[in-house]
Structure formats: structure tokens, C-alpha cells
TrEMBL record, chain A:
Name used for this protein in its record: ATP-binding cassette domain-containing protein
Species the sequence originates in: Dyella monticola
Family statement drawn from the similarity comment of this UniProt entry: Belongs to the ABC transporter superfamily. Macrolide exporter (TC 3.A.1.122) family.
Domain of life: Bacteria
Keyword entries, A-Z: ATP-binding, Nucleotide-binding, Transport
Keyword Ligase: no
Stored PROSITE patterns: ABC_TRANSPORTER_1, ABC_TRANSPORTER_2
SUPFAM superfamilies, sorted: P-loop containing nucleoside triphosphate hydrolases
Pfam family for this entry, one: ABC_tran
TrEMBL record, chain B:
Keywords: Cell membrane, Membrane, Transmembrane, Transmembrane helix
TM stretches of this protein: 20-40, 253-273, 298-325, 345-371, 392-409, 415-439, 469-490, 702-724, 745-773, 793-812
Protein name from the UniProt record: ABC transporter permease
Subcellular localization, as worded in the UniProt entry: Cell membrane
Superkingdom per UniProt: Bacteria
Cellular component GO terms held in the UniProt record: plasma membrane
Keyword Zinc: no
ABC3 transporter permease C-terminal domain: residues covered: 259-371, 707-820
Native source species: Dyella monticola
Membrane topology: Multi-pass membrane protein
Amino acid sequence: MSGGSRPVVARHVLDVRDVSKSVIGPEGRLDILSNVVMQVSEGESFAIVGASGSGKTTLLGLLAGLDTPTHGSIQLDGHALETLDEEARADLRRRLVGFVFQSFHLLPALTAEQNVMLPLELEGQSDAREKAHAALDAVGLGSRRKHYPAQLSGGEQQRVAIARAFVHSPRVLFADEPTGNLDRRTGRHVCDLLFALNRDHQTTLVLVTHDLQLAERCVRSVELQEGRLAPLERPA
Amino acid sequence: MKILLLALRTLRREWHLPELRTLAASLVLAVVALGVVATLTTRMERGVLASAAELIGGDVGVSAPETIPAPFAQMGEQRGLSVTRTASFPSVAFAQQQSQLLDVLATDTAYPLRGTLLIADARGQQRVTHGPAPGTVYVDHRALVGLQRRVGDTVQLGGRDLRIAGELMQQPDGGELVAMAPRALMNLDDADRAGLLGVGSRARHYVLLAGQPAAVQSWRSWAQSATLPQGGELITPEQTQERMRNAFDRSDAFLRLTALLSALLSGVAIALASQRYARRKTGEVSLLRALGTSRARVFGLLLGTMGGLALPAALIGVALALLLAQGAWYFASQLFSGVPTVLPVLPSLAAAGMGIAVLVGFALPPLVRLADVPPVAVFRASMARRIRRFDVLYLIPAVVALALIWNLSGSAKLAGILAASLLGVAVTAGLLAALLLWIARRIAPGGHPALRLGMAALARRRGLSIVQATALSMGLTALLLLAVVAPALLDGWRKELPSDTPNWFVLNLQDDQRADFSKALARIGANQLNMMPLAVGKLTAINGHPIDSLHFKDERAKDWSDRQLRLSWSDELPPANTVIAGQWFTPHPAQAEVSVDTMWRDMYALKLGDTMRFDVGEGQIDARVTSFRHVDWTSFRVNFFLMLDPTHASALPHTWLASFYLPHGHTEALAALSRDDPNLSLVDVDALLDRVRDIVQRVTSAVRWVLGFSLLAGALVLAAALATSGQERRHEAALLRTLGARRGLLRIAAACEFAMLGLIAGITAALGAMIGGWWLGRSVFHIKDFMPQPLPLAWSALAAAVLVMLLGLAGTRKVTHTPPMRLLRAE
């Protein structure tokens, strides 16, 4: 499956083969994803778009190892996620993955700096504070280190979340509607930052959004329709 | 009506919320703790009074050294009360060559109206009976031994030959500590015809009455206003049971204290749970307000929901309290064998009222603030969090707590100490928790990632951590306070009645008998012998004014000045006495001196330096008041209201009063001794001692049992605290899991967090229990030389840390299993 015109990098950071996801609901079995096949190469930016309820979030969860597929195989940086237990997947996430959420998910009682330090603290890194400073400087919030989330605007909070996502140099960054809670202008600035860091760090970026303009900025885009992937129809 | 239905629907929908279940559990616990203790103490009170009636042989009565005027019986009969007449006097019985001084009670055949008169016939068959028929007598075992007679034999009493119709096994004994022994029961008409009750006899006459409580009360009111014969006095259950009552009063205070602390802890749990509930409901309330629901209607809805929760919970609490009280009574009732008492319901209902007051007091502030959430908060959640530096609403729990303390402690002093201790613990715990958190936050970055995360978790919820630590501290303080004070208190009670407490008293010992009597006692195995001189006199003047010309506010003063007083003297201040003003006697004072008990000081409004004149025998003594004493009348020692200085008093005509301990099984040897010295009166207080020991033992068990309520309340506080932070914890766990944290790391982090929390609470509680326990022990329970031991408290603090850690881990077990997908789904 390919969508963009740029050259495809040979090594696949994500390799999804014939993945399906079903859940048992009150009205019986519900198929959320069916036979999804996709590959994402190292350093690539990749967008998944779709309407509400199309299965975007479920797919993102599967790709990041937060959940396991009912059928099929997902390889993250060469590791078959479906063969790993939850603890091993947690180890993998800690080393390889960064997240940016629509609702930022900053811990309200921690300062911006402490929030950014969190992934490094989980790894037991002793220079967490210095790296957090650098990450906050990189997103332009060096002067707001001691501020709590409630003292920051929505855009600033998302920039802190981006700093947290990049601070431990992940191989893949998953972003779930990163501009969903922001106004258009702020959203654009946050996206500029996200793509700049993606470029500078050579991090693979997997983006879930319903914003087509944002999806267009990615190297490749696919659309989820009722649990199945289809190439994104780009406007002429 | 509509709003009530809506509230009940809301409650049904929200019943699964942990905070509502915590609220209900806290209320049930508060009602149960308060209800059980109140029911049990009320029932014990009734039991004490009822068993007092058994001891008296009637519900109420009057006694006098002369025949009781007819109206006292007539007024009782008019009110439908049963009446019995008795008279007690010492008399010598003869049987062939043997003679024995007996404590005789002459009764009519209606005696006793209350309690049991149990006799055994010649074959040892026991039966319950009433006063003996004319021509017969019942005597106790010691009398049979002393007279060398058996049931069916004849003895001569008052010059009449009487057949021994039974051995006296049990009788209502008047509840008097100082009663003559051995005992005999004879017919009142026989005694009258024998001239034993005539003018000049040493008989004391009684009229006893029994019947419906209202009629008894009516007779009491009448008798209190009637003129009693010279030297007469009313006999009431209250005065009869003073000793038993003292044992109950102290246990009552302790049980109430335990219940109070359990209720207050439940209040803390309620406060935490209701805050969590208010926070959870903020979004819903702002939406309701935005959709046009008035503030009053929202508040009504919240009140309705709370009411729907509180009423069934309170009723469950009442039912449980009655059930537990009934169970506890099963054990306690053996203290009042044969006393029928009905399970009182009112105390448990009152406890339900108090429980609801606790719920309202502690849950109201967050609910009122919740109703205040503005409609605009539906757009901006931050609008719902208007921070006020001081909110008068938060005084409500304090007022409710104070009212509860006041109501249950029944003493301003105890209430003050309790309130100050709890407030002190709360403030100290808060400050200490803040300080330790600050230190931990600075130390943690250099430690293990789990420690850092644990400390970060505490720091993240700094406010809640401080509240949690404070609440846990208060719970633990309550437990440790009780653990510290209870053993010392119970040990103190036991020490007051060691196994060799004097169980015999001897009256009328003469100077020349003392040495031989001491030797004889030693021979039969008696020990702990203590002798006190005893002079009998009358108070005739104070500061030179004849006592009859003086007027006293206290009505008892007149009565006491009509009585024969027992005076004694000693070089040393007797045990169980404390001089609270003035000084104990100096050697060889120029003028006679007297030391006065505080009851007498208050009754006669005496001051140091006043002079009291006593007529003793043919002479008089004018003594200056040089000290006032506090006397522990529960001590089972020989004590005196008035003590004179030995220099001047030893010349007064006197006898000796001796007390000693005689092991069981030596009664016959003592009876022989009494035959050799027929002037001596021996008094056996073993039965009374056994009864009080039994009470102390049962009360000890009851206190330990009630401690369980405080333990449960402490656990509820922790559960409420965990429920308060539950959602936040789950969110954090999901985030940390998403970022790659292993479950083990989260568990160790939680262990660090709760251990730290427990340690803060434990240290504060140990300090609070140390200081508060010392204060309570000394000031309220008067435990001598009481000093809580620091080492067990330090261990308790450590144990608290481990316990809180384990409870915390158990409470957050599910949190560490929070699936990381929850974070994405929460978008």
C-alpha cells in the first residue's frame, strides 16, 4: 500500500499483516478492523484518517502495542507484538515509542519540566532534568519549565506533550488527533513543530486525524472505512 | 415529590460508585459504634439499678433507728406498691453450751419484694422462699458452725426457742459493705414479742416498697418531702450500688470515648468520600445548571440522594447495633443474674440521629459548594474550581465534631482534652506530612525510579496526601491512644483489687485484744492486717456556733449532723487519700487538728482554719481544719470522712477496726476465733469483691471488643482516601503504562508511596498518642504515675507504615492492571 510520491525507505519500522480486531459487545461480535495490511518505513510520516467510529484509535492502539489484534501480525521495529505479553510490550514502548494525545494527558500536579522528565525517569536515566530542559527549549518553552499545566494555554500544553514524546528519542511517534483540541492557528504551529522534530530526529511519525490538511503534510496517508484500509483520495 | 423520585433514581444509578458505598459504610459504622455502646451502657445502668433493688430487697425504702411511722407504708399501699417491714439488730444466739453473736434480720413473710431468698433444708435441697414463719429461723453456714447446729435443730434467740428451718444460702443483703455476720433471719412478730425491737434496742427498722416504676417514683417524691424520723434515711438503688456504679462509670466513660473516636473517624471518611463525590458530579451539575435547573433544585436533588442513602444506612446501623448489643448483653447479663431488662431501642435511635448529624456535618460543605457550580462551568471546567481562602462552611464539621465530643464525653474537661488532642494531632500531622513530603521530594531524585515515582505520586497529590496522612494519623492516634490508655487503666483497676485485697473486716476490737487477735489471725493464715482506731461521736458545732443554729445549702448536712460519726486518726496519710489543700498533721500540734474529706468540705462549706467540735463519749474535742483530702472511696480500704491528729485523739474512747485477707476455706477457723471473742463483729466482703472483680473482667473484654470499631473506622478512612484518588490513579497508571512502565515498577512505586504515607501517619500518631495518652491518663482517668512507653509506640508507627502499605497495595491492585488503551479511549 502506498500513497505519496516520495521515495519509500526500504526498512519497515511497522509491518502490519492481515490484522483484524473484534470485540464481543452486548449485541454480539463486533468487527472493528478487518484484514488491515500496511507498512511504515523508518523516518516516514504516515497519516491514518477516517470518520468517527471507523477504527482509527483501535488501530493506533494496536500499532503502539497498547492492545493485541484478534488475528494477524504486527511487527514494531522487528518485534512481533502479538507474541509479547503486556510487560514485554511495555518495555518496548518505553524504549521505542512516543505519544502525543488529543487531550495532551499531562499530569496536572507536575510542572512542565517534571512531565517531560517522566519517560526518562521510567528508564532510570540520571540526566533526566538536563534532557527535559533541552526538550522544552526545543519546543520554545524553556522559560515555562516551572509552570503547571493549568497555567499553560492549550497550545503550550501540547508543546510540552510533544517535548515529552521526543525527549527519549523514540523510534516511532504516535500522535492521536494532536490538533483536535487546538484552534487552527495554534494547531498549525504545533504541527510545524511536530514535523520539524520528526525531520530533525529522523523519528517515524504515525498520525491519526480526521483533518485532511494535516494528513496531506505526511509522506503517506491511508483512510479507514468501516475497519478497512483504503488509499486516501486526495483533492485535486 | 418529583425531586425525591429523581433523587432516588439518581441514587440507584450511582450506587456502584465507591464513594457512595464508603459514605454508607461510614454512616453504618458510626451508628453501630455509637448505638452499641449507648444501648449497652443504658442497659448496664438499668441492670445496676435493678440488681441494687435485689440487694435492697425492694425498689426503694426508708430506714430509721425507731419504728417507721405508718404513713410511709400507707402512702406506698395507696400507690399500689407492695410493702414489707424488717428490722436488723445484733443479738446473741444460744445452743446448749455454744453462743454466737448474730446479725439478725427480722422480717415479715412478704420479704423480700425483690431479689432472692434462698435456703437449703437438712438434706441440702435448695429452694427460694420468703421470710421465715413464726417459730422458725434461717441461719447461715457460719452461724451453724459457730453454734454447732444443723438444720432442724433448735436455737434460742431473744429468749425464744426457734427451729432452724433452713440454712441461709443467699439473701438480699442491703448492699451495705459494713454488715454484721454471721447472719440469721427470724420472723418480725417473734422478734417483737421477744422484746428485741423495743425502746433501747439497737434495732434499725426498715420499710421496703416495690412496684411499678411510676408509683415508686411518686412515693420517692413524697418521701423526700416528708419528715423522716430522727436518724432516718431513704434507701435508694443509686446510693446502694455506689461501688458497682463506680466500676461501671469508668468503663462507661471509656466505651463512650471509643465510640466517639470511631464516629469521628467515620466523619473523616465521610468528608473524603463526599469530596470525591462532589468532584465527580461537577460536570453533571454544571450541565444541569446550564439546562436551566435552579441552584435550589440541584441542592434538593443532592440532599434527596444523600437522604435516600442515609436513612436505610442508619436503619441498618440501628439493627446491627441492637443485634450486637443483644449479643454483648448475653455475656454482660451474667453480672445481673435474674435481673430482667428489656433491650432499650431509644439509645440506638439516638445514635442514628447522631450518625446522620455526622453525615450532614461532614458531607454538607462539598455538597453545598457543588450546588454552587455555575452553569458556565459546562464550557470551562476551571470555573467550577473557585478557590476560597476561608470558607465558613468548613466550620460545620468542626462544630458537629465538637457537639459530638461534648455530648458523648459528658464532661467539659474530657471534651476539651479530646478536642485539643484531636486538633493538635490534625495540625501536627498536616505540618509533619508537608515537611516529610518536602524532604522526600528532595531525596527521591537520587533514588530508585520506583521510589522517585512513589514520592512523585505523593507530591503530585500534595493536598490529598496531607489530608490522607492527617486522617490516617487521627485514626491511628485514636487506636494507639486507646491501646496506650486501656491496658494501664484496666491494669489500674485490677491493681485496685489484687487477689489479696482485705476480704474481712473486724469491728469492736478492744485495746487489750489487739495483740492476741493479731497472733490468732496469723495462725489461721490471715495476712494484710491493718488496724485503725475508731471513735464514735457527733458533730455539734462549727466555729463555736451550735450545728442546729447553722443553715447549710446542702440538704445532706442536716442529716449527717444527726448521725453518729466515725472518727479515726493516724500518723501517716492513709493510702487512697490525697491532701489537696493544707497540710497533713505535724507531730504534736498544740491544738487538736482535723483533716476533712472533700464531700464534707463542700457539704458544710468548710475552710482551712475553721474549728469543728465533736462530742465523743463524755468528752468534747475542738479541732481546727488543717487539711482537705480527696478520698478514693472505690478502693475497698477503710476510709474516713474525718481524721483527727493522733496526739489529741488517742485519748478519746475508742475501739479498733481491723481489715485483713483470709484465703478461702478458713471460715471455720475464723468462726472459732469469733466464739473466743464474742464482742467482735466479723464482716465478710468476699462476695462484693468477687462481684466487682467480675465486672472489671467483663468490662476489660468489652473495651477490647469495642476497640474493633476504631480499627474498622481507620480502615474506612484509608478506603475513602483511596477512593478519592482512585480515578486519578487509574489515569496515571494508564499514562505510565502507555509510556512503558512495567506493572512491577508501578507496584513498588505504590508500596513506596503508601509506606511513606503510613510512616508519616504512624510517627504523628505515635507522638499524638504519647502526649494525648499521658494527658488523658493523668487528668481524666487518674492513673497514677502514668507514662506511655515510647518503644511500643515506635514499633506501632513502623507497623502502621507496613499495614498502610499493604492496605494501599490491596486497594490499588486493580489500578496497576489498568489497560493503557483506557487513555486513548478517554479522549
